Amino acid sequence: MTDKNNKWVACWGTATSITDRREAVYAKDLTLRYPIRMCFSGSQLRFRFSNLTGTEPVTLTKVFVGHTAITFGGEVSVTLLPGKEMESDAVSYDVQRGDTIDVSLYLAGYTQMNAGTLVTGPLSKGYYAYGDYAEADELPLDLTRHTNWYYFLNTIDVLTSSAHHAIVCFGDSITAQSWPDYMARMAFGTDAAIIRRAVSGTRILRQYDCITYQAYGLKGTTRFPIEMNVAGATDVIIQHGINDIIHPVGTDVNPFRPWSDLPTVEEMEQGIENIYVKPAKAMGLKVWSGTLLPIYGWRTYNEERELMRQQLNEWLRTSPIFDGCIDFDAAVRSVTNPKAFADGFDSGDHLHPSERAYEAMAHAAVHKLVRSMPRIDHEEFF
Question: How far apart are CA 10 and CA 201, in angstroms?
């Protein structure tokens, strides 16, 4: 098996952002556990942990994958400095496609929980438990709750076949929700891993520094070079920009959302090209544009914003700077009222899709990037 495994490829990933600012920002004597389904077979694993948005050192007292300790320079404990990420030693750990591995972190002392991202979808659910259960087979039911916040764990790489590669999904809350998970399900059994790099509320050209909206993440210029550190990546899907359009409302309505934050369509196009496309091309990646979804009925909707969305979508569909377009808008919009979601495709807030719509988005992406790829032998798949 090890003779065939000669390439490191990311098999799971999320972004790291500033967590939602609530009353409690510290934890102590806490175990985090994240079940991760393996999309590839492999013989070694390595793990990246991130304190990118932290302002204090964070000590991971111990970290385990199953019953195997994850080490850092041979040490079982690691301190993540503020603004930094750390990669573990390679861990000898045989995995088969379809296995679920449990990554457990124990935080003994007071720990600033400032670095993490909210992620949802059928493959995305973690747990936390009071006490030290990093090495336990099961977490105690009476001390455990579910969480969709992914703290510190940023990326998992597997030493696997050279035929395998990673596709990066870059975006905001639309991408932090379900469609990358559905895409990963549909791509299961192919040579492609689906890596999510998404932060709810994030924008291309601006970011918030107030505690009210800090969880809306870093701006594109800051995020992209860091989040594109993805082993084995060949493609990136960029579905980003709707928050640049819908957030500004004027300081008389919201002191943190001035009209000066509203870009022109041309500024958004230049931002996408200079912040995302050119750097990705320099990394040797294919770049796929993702059109922006309907916003009809959203609380800040107006015809001017809709016109901006339509103009940007036309550019995303036709600009030669991209290797292709995934027309998410066409996949989820109404035939009779293309400004709005199709029936059953609106989550209810007129901005985020329903689960059915997320599946439709995944189908659109898989059709362009995965379906034509050679499938793995049936025997290896199962």
Answer: 25
